[in-house]
Specification:
Number of strands: 4
């Protein structure tokens, strides 16, 4: 009975398994070309795949794991970029909304302040007309004041409340008949102007606006 060949190396060649063994197998029922110099045999086994070696499995797993890791990294990077872009857009929208609110609030304070000044310079205005005009001029400030309390940082709210109260005190003096040359009016206007300066500074700080008017 012929001894089975001792397999030392195997590879595939055009779909066939090529096996090199230490001895030529003259009794093998399949084609067995011989290498005379090395005294080894080559057995070509038709229709069979090469045995799955550990190296081949490792390469397959490495390829699979590399593909999975690459897909995870790509997906994670895309999600991170999307989140950063969403956060940036949200911050931009909130900043723009605050900028609009700040502008509206400052405009309403300015209009009320000028209305008070005009009434204080008119000694002939009827007391009833003076009170009605002062209330109407100050009315828009009230609604925007409440929007400020829920939409802006606390530091800006504090300055906003202070400026609002100072202007309200000045309005009350005007409604009482105080004129623009009276010390009470001058003192009320000064304290309001100081509070307004603080409010503007904190608004600019919140919007990251420098002294040159550019956002930083």
């Amino acid at each position: 009975m012929a001894r089975a060949p001792v397999i030392t190396r195997a590879r595939t060649y055009y779909g066939h398994l090529v096996v090199r063994n230490r001895r030529a197998c003259g009794t093998c029922p399949v084609s067995t070309p011989h290498n005379d110099k090395a005294q080894v045999g080559v057995v070509i086994i038709q229709g069979r795949q090469a045995p799955c070696s550990g190296y081949g499995r490792s390469m397959q797993w490495i390829t699979l794991i590399s593909t999975i890791v690459g897909a995870v990294i790509a997906t994670g990077s895309a999600m991170l970029l999307d989140r950063q872009r969403w956060k940036r857009e949200r911050v931009d929208r909130e900043t723009q909304a605050r900028r609009t609110l700040y502008g509206d609030y400052l405009a309403s304070l300015s209009e009320a302040r000028h209305a008070c000044g005009n009434m204080a310079r008119d000694p002939d205005m009827e007391p009833s007309m003076r009170r009605t005009t002062a209330r109407e001029a100050f009315g828009p400030c009230i609604g925007l004041r409440y929007q400020m309390t829920i939409s802006v940082p606390s530091r800006v709210v504090e300055a906003s409340e202070d400026a609002f109260r100072r202007l309200r005190d000045l309005r009350d003096r005007v409604m009482e008949g105080v004129l623009a040359t009276d010390p009470v009016y001058l003192e009320g206007r000064r304290t309001y102007d100081d509070a307004l300066a603080v409010l503007r500074a904190r608004m600019r700080e919140d919007l990251h606006v420098g002294d040159d008017g550019a956002a930083h």
